[in-house]
Specification:
Number of strands: 0
Strand content: under 5%
Length: 51
């Protein structure tokens, strides 16, 4: 998504603001758009999506 330095700078700024405690940064796994059980339908720019 963004350049790695943006993430590093944001995390450094967050660490400087925290006096104590734990920082938990949650993420998610990538899910392919054409996965059969994916609840998000394929969105395209006028191009038909594969079945």
């Amino acid at each position: 998504m963004f350049d790695i330095t943006i993430y590093k700078n944001r995390r450094s700024a967050l660490r400087r603001k925290m006096e104590s405690g734990i920082i938990l940064l949650l993420g998610n796994n990538e899910a392919p758009a054409n996965y059969p059980d994916n609840t998000y339908h394929c969105i395209s720019s006028g191009i038909p999506c594969p079945d």
